[in-house]
């Protein structure tokens, strides 16, 4: 039998769970728009710069383009993942409260670790200082500081590595709960596939970067499909329980 909501948490029944489902659906559609926009941005503007010197040059030429290529938009959108996965928990709590709660907690923990890492803003400040530096020695110091920021940012630092791993484990887990819940089997299996691929991408990045890149591309192509399916279903569940 599915694990039901613990009696000791009966006070949670006062929550408007349908509202959380609808809000999670909105968050999924926000992420859908972000996913498509990111694909277009990479195709038109290019991906993240690989060195601090490249990042400084891009930021000095156009700060908006530089921030976009340094994934600043990702930092602005990532907090909506809290809302999306709380919406998924709201929809799945009656299917298996314990597993849905653990999976959601893992996602929340991972997101918090990722968001705590340095972002594009420190690089922008260093870029301004680099441009104003009066000597080559000072410029070399700012470049070294920029390389340190890149090495520990939201994609490369230890916290980011662990955070991304927790997020994807939690996402695979909650997708497995979907197999027994209010979501279609298609939604559940697409979620297991893309988050599983993304988990492998994170695990392999330090050891097999080329393979990790291919896994990331494969997962990225499936995200819009999953987000559309999840967003539509969360809105349906929320509207049906008004």
Structure, described:
- The chain is an all-alpha fold.
- The chain has one domain.
- Helix content is 77%, strand content 0%.
- It is built from eleven helices and no strands.
- Helix 2 packs antiparallel against helix 3, helix 5 packs antiparallel against helix 6 and helix 10 runs antiparallel to helix 11.
- The longest helix has 32 residues.
- The radius of gyration is 20 Å and the shape is elongated.
- 38% of the residues are buried.
- About 3% of the residues have low confidence.
Quickly count the domains. 1
Task: Please state the average pLDDT score.
Answer: 87
Strand content: under 5%
| Distance, first to last CA | 27 Å
Q: Give the count of helical stretches.
A: 11
Uncertain segments: 7-14
Mind telling me the C-alpha Rg? 20 Å
Specify the oligomeric state.
Answer: single chain
Shape: elongated
Task: State the total count of DSSP E strands.
Answer: 0
**Share in helix:** over 70%
Largest sheet: none
Question: What's the order of the H and E elements?
Answer: HHHHHHHHHHH
